[in-house]
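Bit of a strange request maybe. I'm writing a small parser for structure token strings and I need a real example to test against, not something I typed by hand. Could someone generate the tokens for this chain?
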Amino acid sequence: MRRTHFTRFAHGLKATLERERLTGLARRLGQCWRLRDVTPQRLVCSLLEALGSRRVETVADIQRAFNAQTGLGTRYKAFYNQLAKPGFPRFMRAVFQELLGTWAPHLQGRKL
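Reply from user aminoacidic:
Good idea to test on real output. This should exercise your parser:
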């Protein structure tokens, strides 16, 4: 893979995972209203890290990755409640579509 691909990948990832962008998207889609320990950016980054780097069998596995990544001591229930919100699937779908749109422009406009 050429260096330009890595650069484009890094810029796209950074832009998509920007705190303000994810917070606005989460609020628009009903994922969050108030920002507490489990912010949209922290949630997405911990999900990407957990699902991309280890075997995940339970929500507790993701919650432990979240706590390790953030240095917080977020309890299971508080973490789970963020995943249980009706806006969570819409939010994650939108994040995934933005990532795909950034990395593969020729896929834009197609239904996933």
